[in-house]
Amino acid sequence: MYPATSGVASAAPAVVSRPRSRCCVPTAGVTTILERIAAGDAKAVQECLDRFGPLVWSLARRAVPDHSQAEDAVQDIFIDVWRSARRYDPAVASETTFIATIARRRLIDRRRRLGRRLEREAEAEELAGAAAAEDAGLRGVDVGDEARVAAQALQQLRPDQRRVLTLSILGGLSHSQIASRTKLPIGTVKSHLRRGLERVRELLEPEHRRTSGEARR
Amino acid sequence: MTLEPDPVLLELLADHALEGLDGGRRQELDRRLSEHLEIDAEAYERAAAAIHLALLSGPLEPLPAALRARLEGDARRELGPGTSESARTRPRALAVAWTGWLAAAALLVALVSLSLREGFGTGRATRDPAGAWEALAKTEGSVVKPWEATSDPLAEGVSGEVLWNEREQRGFMRFIGLARNDPSAEQYQLWIFDSAREAEHPVDGGVFDVRGNDVVVPIEAKLAVYDATLFAVTLERPGGVVVSRRDRLLLTAPL
C-alpha cells in the first residue's frame, strides 16, 4: 500500500491515537493565554492578539490575496479561536500550533468555497519554504518546538517528498495539481503526503509530552 | 492491545488536513470516526500546521489597526461580559438609558470639539445616493431595518430604513416624509447605540438636513461601532448637541 521510501521511519502509519489527557502532564503554576481567555480574562484577549495576530494575519495574507477577504478570513479564524479556547489542552499542542491549526482549517474552508488555489504563490514560495525549513521558521516569531520538529522531519525526507509537502501545505495545491506539476503518479503524491504527515505526527507526540511539561515550569 | 489502522480513515484524515473534504467524504469521515473513538481526529491537522509554520519564511505583517478593533469587538461579543468592560445592554434598555446622557456630557465635550474641527455636522451629500445604497446593501454583512416613528408630531407618517454594515463601518439612512428643516434653526442628529460601549455614550452618527420628501443620508459615525443595537434620530439645535435632552426623539430602528 505504501511504497518503500528512504528516510521514513515506518512503512505503514501507526494508529493516530487520541492524545494523552492533561492529567498526565504537569500543569501547576502557569496558565496559558487560551486558558485565561476561556476563563474570561479580558487582558488575555489583548495578549492573544499581540502574540498571534501577526502570525494569523500573515497566514491569511499569503492564502487570500485580496486584502478585504483576508481581513474577513482573520475574523473567522479568531472567532473560532475565541469559541475553541476552552478546548485547548497544553498537553496536546502548543498555543501556536493550536491557533495555526484553526487558521489552516478556516483558510482551507474559504479556499474550497471560493474554488481558488494559489499556484503562482506556491511557485514563489516553494524555494523559500525549503530554505526556511533549514533554519526552522519565520523571522520575528517563535514558531514553537513543534515547528522545529517539523522542520527536522522535513530535512529527513527526500527532496521530492519535501517538495510535495511544500506544494500542498504552503501552496495549497490539490493532489492532482501536484501530480501534474511534479510528474509524479497521483498515488505517489498521496503516499508522500501521508508519510510526511505521519512522520511529523510521530515526532510531535513525544516532543510535546516533553515540552509541555517544560513550558509550565 | 494493538489496534488496526483503518486505511480509508487515515486517507480521509490526511486529505481533510491538507485540502479539506467535500460533503460526501466529510460524512464518510465522521461515520468512520464514530467507529474509531480511539483516533485523534486532529492529529494530522496539527502535523500539517506544524509543517506550515516550519515552511513559512520572512517577517510577519502586523495586524491592521482597524482589523484589530474588529477582532476585539468580536471577542467581546463571543466571550461575554467577562472579557468586556462595557455593559451589554439591549435596545429597549438603551432607550431608557438616555436619561443618563447629561451625566456623560463632560466626557463627550472633547470628542465633539474634535469632530467639529473635522467637519462634523455637515451632512455631506452623496452624489448617487440610490447607487451607493444599492452597492452597500449588496455587501456581505449589511443589514436593513425600518424606522419606527415615535409619538412626536414631526415623526407622524415618516417611514424609511437604515442600512448599516458593521464590517465596513458605513451605512445610510433613508427617510420618506421627514419634514424639511431650516438648518439655521434646527438640525437632525443620528445616535448609534453599541453594546460594546456604555449605554450612556451612544456613538454620534452625524448631524444632517432634509431637503426632499425621499432622501438618503450617509451615516457618519464618529467612533468605531462594534455591535450596533439601536439607531435613533433626534431634532437638535444647529450643529448638533453633545448630549440629547431627548425631548425631540423622532425615529428609532432597533437591530
Features:
heterodimer; A: 217 residues; mainly alpha; 9 helices; globular; B: 255 residues; alpha+beta; five-stranded antiparallel beta sheet; four-stranded antiparallel beta sheet; 7 helices; elongated
Give a quick precis of the structure.
The complex is a heterodimer of chains A (217) and B (255). By secondary structure, chain A is mostly helical.
Write the layout of secondary structure elements.
The complex is a heterodimer of chains A (217) and B (255).
Chain A (H helix, E strand, L loop, with lengths): L32 H6 L3 H22 L3 H18 L10 H20 L4 H16 L10 H12 L2 H12 L4 H8 L3 H30 L2
Helix pairs in contact in A: 2-3, 2-4, 3-4, 5-7, 6-9, 7-9, 8-9
Chain B lengths: L6 H13 L3 H13 L7 H13 L9 H15 L11 H6 L4 H17 L11 H9 L4 E5 L1 E2 L9 E7 L4 E7 L10 E8 L8 E6 L5 E5 L9 E9 L12 E6 L1
Helix pairs in contact in B: 1-2, 1-3
Structural notes for this entry:
The complex is a heterodimer of chains A (217) and B (255). By secondary structure, chain A is mainly alpha-helical. Chain A is built from nine helices and no strands. The longest helix of chain A has 30 residues, at 186-215. The N and C termini of chain A lie far apart (44 Å). In chain A, 47% of the residues are buried. In chain B, a hairpin with a 4-residue loop joins strand 3 (159-165) and strand 4. The longest helix of chain B has 17 residues, at 101-117. Chains A and B meet through helix 2, helix 3, helix 4, helix 5 and helix 6 of A and helix 1, helix 3 and helix 4 of B.
Largest interface: A-B, 88 and 57 residues
Residue fraction in strands of chain A: under 5%
Report low-confidence residues of chain B grouped into runs of 5 or more: 82-126
Overall morphology of chain A: globular
Helix content of chain A: 55-70%
How many alpha or pi helices of chain B? 7
Tally of helical segments of chain A: 9
**H-E order of chain B:** HHHHHHHEEEEEEEEE
Report how far apart the termini of chain A are. 44 Å
Strand content of chain B: 15-25%
Largest sheet of chain B: 5 strands, antiparallel
Kindly provide the radius of gyration of chain B, computed on alpha-carbon positions and rounded to a whole number of angstroms.
25 Å
Strand-pairing-aware structural class of chain A: mainly alpha
Quote the distance from N terminus to C terminus of chain B.
58 Å
Low-confidence stretches of chain A: 1-15, 20-28, 117-140, 207-217
The largest β sheet of chain A comes out as:
none
Order of helices and strands of chain A: HHHHHHHHH
Strand order of the largest sheet of chain B: 2-9-8-5-6
- The protein's oligomeric status is heterodimer
- SS-based structural class of chain B? alpha+beta
What's the count of strands of chain B? 9
